[in-house]
Amino acid sequence: MNGFADHGLDEATFGEKGGFTEGLRTFDAFPKTKPTYTRRTSTGGYTTLILLFFSVFLSLTELRRWYRGHETQLFSVEKGVSHTLQINLDTVVAMKCADLHINVQDASGDRILAGDMLNREPTTWNQWVNDKGIHRLGNEDGKGRREELEEEDTHVGHVLGEVKRGSKKFKKTPRLRRGVVADSCRIFGSLEGNKVQGDFHITARGHGYMEFADHLDHSAFNFSHLISELSFGPLYPSLLNPLDHTLATTPAHFFRYQYYLSIVPTVYTRSSTPSLSSPSPGVITSSSDSIFTNQYAVTSQSHLVGEQSIPGIFFKFDIEPILLTISERRGGFLALVVRVVNVVSGVLVGGGWLYQLVGWGRENFGLASRRSQAGEGMLHGRRGDADEGDEET
User: Fold this and answer.
1) Is 114 helix (H, G, I), strand (E, B) or coil?
2) In what helix (H) or strand (E) does residue 384 lie, and over which residues does it extend?
3) Could you tell me which residue, 139 or 376, shows the higher pLDDT?
4) Whole-angstrom Cα distance, residue 263 to residue 319?
């Protein structure tokens, strides 16, 4: 026809050649459409860009989640319990340094004269007390922000980063201006005690223990205080503890502040086997990927006392016989690749189905709309009836 056969042409000339490749077409699970039967539209282009955006966004989310890893918490019996516990304190009391007495007494009966081991420097109350970062126990103002900051210090990555960047020393006491008289005392430093239940307390001179010191007049009592640091174990000032930056004030002279602390030894690690390089067998020490410290929970029962009682600031701590290990793990790279492929393919396939469904709906509803409009035309619609009425008139 039309010289097709005369020129020696047939159907096989324009198709795929036979042979083994031709037989494999039977198993093709990806049928193809000839380019002449496809049409590109701006709507399809917008849809493709949107799907690519979601694919990239979800892929980056999976990558960040993989990089951060996931945390697990494990409670176990503490192995190789050490015999000493380091106590770190940085507080300002609204009394003169010479009028304060500091002691630690544990359940074994040992008494430590903490006043001889800690630093005491005169200062003024106004140099330390301000509204920046200070909170009061039981006060709802700023409680949400405080809980967020404490929550950050429970994650391995944040803790390791803060410890590496932060200083391991106490801040210097601001100098007093000329003519300014010190009305408060800053007590700070670290001391070693037995790792057993004990009491740490700050009382007035001549009160609290049988001693030969002068009896301080009761009118000089003022145990209002600001706790900048109270931690157990190695000193990490950058980590936020429950009593850090806690302010407590009172106008009463006979007032007793009581804090009850429950201490839990804690290890933050990115290693499956934290370092055991301590001279004591089984005792975990800090390393580049592991931090050993102590967390604690605190409750307060502060109240007025009579003149026959002893006013002051009392910390009663108890050490739990357990070890909390918070470890961070990162999945394998192959698992990340599989998740990213699943996400991207799911977005593209789901988006393609949705695009086809919308196109099918527009086509069918558009066809029905055009048919209804055609039924109202010049021959069979309302316009024809109106014309007939005009002719009769």
Assistant:
1) helix
2) helix 382-392
3) 139
4) 5
At 108, list the tokens.
Answer: 């074994």
Show the tokens assigned to 28.
Answer: 């093709």
The string of pLDDT tens digits covering residues 53-79 is 988 999 999 888 888 777 888 888 876
| H or E element, residue 157 | helix 156-165
Contact call for residues 303 and 250 (beta carbons, < 8 A): no
User: 384: which 2 tokens?
Assistant: 């024809």
Distance between CA atoms of 39 and 49, rounded to whole angstroms?
17
Tally DSSP H helices, then E strands, for the chain.
7, 14
DSSP H or E stretch at residue 359: helix 333-374
Residue 304: CB partners within 8 Å, gap ≥ 6? 252, 254, 255, 256
- The amino acid that residue 308 corresponds to is Q
Q: Which helix H or strand E contains 57, and what residues bound it?
A: helix 42-68
| pLDDT higher than 80, residue 149 | no
Q: What is the dihedral of CA 55, 59, 65, 69, to 10 degrees?
A: 150
Give the number of other Cβ atoms within 10 Å of residue 224's Cβ.
20
129-148 pLDDT, tens digit each: 875 667 677 665 656 677 77
Distances 389 to 116, 383, 393 between C-alpha atoms, Å: 117, 10, 7
Total-model pTM: 0.68
